[in-house]
Amino acid sequence: METLIAFLTVFTHPQLLLLVGVGTFAGVYVGAIPGLSVTMAVSILISFTFTWDVLPAIALMIGIYMGGVYGGSRTAILLNIPGAPSAIATALDGYPMAQRGEAGTAIGVTTVMSFFGGFVGIAVLAIAAPFVSDFALTFQPRDYMLLAVLGILLVGSLSSGSLIKGIFAGALGLAIGAVGRDPLTFTERFTFDLQIMQGGISFIAVMIGMFGVSEALLQLHHVDKDAVKQNISRIVPSFGTIRKHLPLSLQTSSIGVIIGALPGTGGDIAALMAYDHAKRVTKTPERAFGDGAIEGLVAPETANNAAVGGAFIPMMTLGIPGDAVTAIMIGALYIHGLNPGPMLMIERPDMFWFIVGALVVANVFMLIFGLTGIKIFTRIVEMPRAVLIPLIMLLSIVGAYAVNNSLSDVYWMLGFGFFGYFMRHYGYPLGPVILGVILSRLLDDNWRRAIISEREDLGRFFWGIITSPLSATLLAAVILIFVSQTPLWTRAKAKLLSTDA
């Protein structure tokens, strides 16, 4: 009975309901602005909610978190500028749909599928949190390293043309991510004795530049063309569309929950892995991936929103943050006299169920706010290009500066914008570059943790991979994905299909 009362607290208290709604609304629009991250918004809130009671403070933060994860898809679809790293995969098919006049359909699909993915993540948090957290604890540094390698091999999915160009772009991203001082030894890497490079390069600046500025420069070639009129007669996807993609959404939601529950990963990696999974299991998409495939929206949006519930699992059961936002929430709970972790589940089970209830309410508000205001948003892509191009540049500059309040990030953003323009002009994909930057730290840190834990003995390191069921499974997946992207595999598969025919 107490559990039910705690769960229904948000529903029965108008103040809490209002705070979740306001937070979700704010999160949707904060997430839609490049550079204004959810992490930034939640961290700022801590200072404002310091004197509040714990329930209103957490309710507002949860609303912003849930809304912000979804909000990044708006500018990804309309302007090809992901509002957050987790929306990179959404832009791959969402923006081509907007270019066809189908922005309303794309936003409707992402909203409904985000709601579905969020619901799956919350359900797993409520039902199976201890089991998922126990599984997450079995991951060793070598497993995180293999997971990063697995992610890097997704360059094949993010490369619409040449695999060689995709590999080059991914390697470039890894190199960019390694710039700065080594976090363990504090030695300089790829800095060329330049002070501006010692602090590293913000991947947000790289992302905004490569997607936003390069898009504005490409649009300069088509200034005289009329804007694409958007068809927004039907926004909510039909029941048939939802039913058709239900199996895929369940699969990618599961990926999102598991990846989200792994400390230090998050929705960006989950979305990219889900996108790769969709490309592999979808045999006959209505449109090719990268050209406006609905599956290319379903997979990343269900995964990154399911990762929200996944990120709360280690936070609530172990006191370990699943991502940057839950790390800040752990700090907020400490400030309000609570101790996240196993004892919280025993001493204050009502707090666990309050958070579950707040997530449910925030997910519903996200659906409501996501399906409203679409007509206004779609006006953006219907603007004359002479107005749209300066708007993209303005958003890009504001977004890059807002990350660290630094002009250096703006310079990096502009530089990578010009570089991204030439990459796109010569057929090099941008997605693998951002993927490489995101995964660089995960790969680097966990490779060294793994080798240090084995006393720098490569033999023991590889023996540990082979003898661990989890590590061996991840290694097999790495080998399989690598082989499946080689020309030899493609020829063998085509030969096998022709033989069967």
Verbal overview:
The chain has 501 residues and is mostly helical. 74% of the residues lie in helices and 1% in strands. It has a two-stranded antiparallel sheet. A hairpin with a 6-residue loop joins β1 and β2. The model has no long low-confidence stretch (mean pLDDT 82).
Question: How are the secondary structure elements laid out?
Answer:
Elements: H1 2-7, H2 9-12, H3 14-32, H4 38-48, H5 54-79, H6 88-99, H7 103-137, H8 141-152, H9 155-158, H10 163-177, E1 180-181, E2 188-189, H11 203-219, H12 239-244, H13 246-261, H14 267-281, H15 295-318, H16 324-335, H17 342-347, H18 349-370, H19 374-378, H20 385-404, H21 407-425, H22 431-453, H23 458-467, H24 469-484, H25 487-500
Antiparallel strand pairs: 1-2
Helix pairs in contact: 3-5, 3-18, 4-5, 4-16, 5-6, 5-7, 5-15, 5-16, 5-18, 6-7, 6-15, 7-13, 7-15, 7-18, 8-22, 8-24, 10-22, 11-20, 11-21, 13-14, 13-15, 14-15, 20-21, 23-24
Strand order of the largest sheet: 1-2
Averaged pLDDT:
82
Structural class: mainly alpha
Shape: globular
Number of helices: 25
Parts with pLDDT < 50 across at least 5 consecutive residues: none
Q: Kindly state the number of beta strands.
A: 2
Sheet-strand content, in percent, reads under 5%
Largest sheet features: 2 strands, antiparallel
Elements, N to C (H/E): HHHHHHHHHHEEHHHHHHHHHHHHHHH
- Please report the distance between the alpha carbons of the first and last residues: 61 Å
Range of helix content: over 70%
Radius of gyration: 22 Å
